[in-house]
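Incident log, structure service

09:12 report received: a user says their structure output differs between two submissions of the same chain.
09:20 pulled the input from the user's history:
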Amino acid sequence: MIELALIAQVLVVALVVAVFLFSGTASMFHPLSFYLIFHTLVFVLRPILLHVYQFDNVWLFIGFWPSAQQFVFTLMVSSVALIAFAIACAWSGAARPEFQDREPFRFDGPDIAAYTLTALLLGPLAVYSAIMRQGGASFTGVGDVQMERDPLTGQPVYVNTTGYVAEAHSMGLPLALGIIWVSRFHPLSFIPFLSFLMYRAYLGWGRWAFIMGVISLVLLLLYHTRTKWFRLWHVAVGLPVLMLFHTLGQNRGALRSVFEGTAPVSSLFRVQGSSDARFVDSLAGQDLGNFDYLSFILWVVPKESGTYTWFTQYLQLFTEPIPRVLWPAKPIGPPVQYFSLHDFGHFANLTTSLAGDGWMSGGWIGMILTMVLVGLALGTIHRWFWRSGAVNKYGVLFYCSFLPLSLQWFRDGGISIFKFGLFSLMPILMWIALTRLFRAWIAFGAEDRPPLVLRRAADGAETS
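09:34 re-ran on a clean worker, output below:
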């Protein structure tokens, strides 16, 4: 029974891919391409590995083992989620990826001045946050960043700082990408970007920064070269990044050990946890475990929980922006909670996926509605890109920085996209706002004066 369901799972993906390619709108700039990659990894390859190699690491961690019927049902739900998302995203994002013949973007004085000011305003905060978090988050009551885990929900909570400061280091990535974009891919402009990735690799946490950053950079390169799909050399560059991601998943201190001289450089290319372990065994962890998590969610909701969330988890959008230092009694998680997955198994630090979050909201209806709404939203942004954003030097950077974030939305579900988007897009939005401000000043009659000194000149005129 499971073997037939796995074959059907592969056929569904193949059918969606075929229709997508036949539509003429397919490219690496389409959100559906990213969901197909995500779905194939966690809902096609993962269950095959689970069934063939009998992985039970995640089951042991959660304390739950699905029956054959539950395994097949999880495959079915994930396939329906894919179809719902694909139809909505393809329909709303029906725009052919056509690069217009035009001169490369040029960045003038206001552009450069605005970006410089953006980097000067946000860069120090990002650096301070990175230094503060170089030891990671501590749950022992010591360290610069201290956290404690809520016993009811399993969620970590900052106790001696606020997320706005602790997570500000994430702005380093878009700031580094912006330097490359404004510099029009000058070789020296890659130094901040590579330094950021190397620093995160040295710390060993925040591995998704590698994936998000490299994908954003490749999308900018694809646009720059008027290319719709990855080239072979893009894949060649991406493979070491994936290897490093996997290595740090096995040993967070792998790169740090190399720098400290306690491990050879060859250890970075050792994908197994030990010399006598098989590579496939290293895939049994939580990196691709969304199928496992979804199986648990389908078992809990609604049979064990007795109810659904009815989309109340999105009420956290109204409470999450308020710092806990200003509201000590702020609810942990959504302000209205009908149940917690942590009550039925060990679900700390695990993610629901977009499909699982939708199922928790209202079963089949909630899952399909969630996938359709997200598909419509991402498809609409894709259509905007090819009709307006692709001819705008600000829109290209914004879209290429935003699109990879969808992978985390697919993985996490809920409001995570708003958290990651806040820091990932803030530098770009600030750059756009400051550029418009500087251009407005220039249009007001100060064409010959540098934008950054316009206010000082205006103040001097008033006092004379």
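09:41 both user submissions now match this output. Likely a transient worker issue. Closing.
09:42 reviewer note: Residues 2-96+106-463 form one domain. Confidence is low (pLDDT under 50) at residues 456-464.
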